[in-house]
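Narrative of activities, Objective 1.

The group set out to show that a structural description can be obtained from nothing but a protein's sequence at a throughput compatible with the screening campaign. Below is one input-output pair from the validation batch, recorded exactly as produced.
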Amino acid sequence: MHTIQIAVTDSQYAADLARALEQAWSWQMASVESPDLEQDGVIVLDLVALNRVRVPLRHPERIVLIAHNDPENFPVPGKRALFRDIRIRFTQYC
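Output recorded for this entry:
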């Protein structure tokens, strides 16, 4: 079974996201502070978690970034190379 690792600072948002994803797919959800980049599956990050990730990533296509749609947030200092390799999907959250 595949795992979706959710590394999102807002614990309520992370829990809501995990519940929604569990309903959509039969994958296992794991709320984590720092994702295990060696583990298979999708990794959902917010900007705080992204700042803790080592680059370069071996499989950047597995990353889903959740952030406020605010150009001031991008690119995250020190992560410019990462942004060339992943597709960023924006969502608004509180």
